[in-house]
């Protein structure tokens, strides 16, 4: 599938691996793909993000902060946290206790304090694989010949999880991305 990715989409995937690696994560998660998209410049996804109010680093920082906070909660979405609260489980209290005993970020799954997984690059996690698969399906549905970083962004908005929740909180939804980032000219000129 990687051979169908555009240069920009490949850069996002490579950036996600680097984000996971530098953070000591065991796996590349959907959040790492989101962080790599935020780092992109001059691509269809970066233009879409800019059109939706995430053009400048100061505008993108709240997204990064929300991702960091979710990783501190072991990747639980706000909906997960609220559901647990209805059962009488206070996630913030659990995080505080775990971090008190094991250090800040102990629930994130990152290995920074314990070394780098014996030199191995992190593998792609279940959610990240779902995003990659969904990006292929979205490209096919839009009759695009290649998978671009805009397809990765669209996939992040529809695959349930922290990345989609954080994007939605900042006004980046499937509908808004589709509005500012229509199918490529090649797909339109092919009469599709």
Automatic annotation (TrEMBL):
Tell me the ranges covered by the Clp R domain, including all copies.
2-190
| Molecular function in Gene Ontology | peptidase activity
Transmembrane residues, as ranges? none
Is the keyword rRNA-binding assigned to this protein? Answer: no
Q: Which UniProt keywords apply?
A: Hydrolase, Protease, Repeat
| A single GO BP | proteolysis
Q: What highest taxon heads this organism's lineage?
A: Bacteria
Which SUPFAM superfamilies does the record match to this protein?
Double Clp-N motif
A Pfam entry, by short name: Clp_N
InterPro entries per the record?
A: Clp_N_dom_sf, Clp_R_N
Matches recorded under PROSITE patterns: CLP_R
According to UniProt, the name of this protein is Clp protease N-terminal domain-containing protein
Organism of provenance? Streptomyces cinerochromogenes
């Amino acid at each position: 599938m990687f051979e169908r990715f555009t240069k920009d989409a490949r850069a996002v995937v490579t950036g996600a691996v680097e984000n996971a690696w530098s953070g000591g994560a065991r796996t590349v998660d959907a959040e790492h793909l989101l962080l790599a998209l935020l780092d992109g410049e001059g691509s269809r996804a970066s233009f879409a993000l800019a059109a939706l109010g995430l053009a400048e680093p100061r505008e993108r920082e709240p997204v990064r902060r929300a991702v960091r906070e979710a990783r501190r909660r072991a990747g639980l979405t706000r909906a997960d946290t609220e559901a647990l609260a209805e059962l009488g489980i206070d996630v913030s209290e659990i995080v505080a206790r775990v971090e008190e005993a094991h250090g800040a970020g102990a629930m994130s799954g990152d290995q920074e304090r314990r070394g780098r997984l014996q030199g191995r690059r992190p593998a792609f996690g279940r959610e990240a694989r779902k995003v990659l698969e969904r990006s292929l399906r979205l490209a096919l549905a839009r009759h695009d010949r290649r998978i671009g970083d805009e397809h990765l962004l669209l996939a992040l908005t529809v695959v349930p999880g922290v990345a989609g929740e954080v994007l939605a909180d900042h006004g980046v939804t499937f509908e808004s991305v589709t509005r500012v980032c229509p199918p490529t000219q090649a797909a339109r000129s092919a009469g599709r």
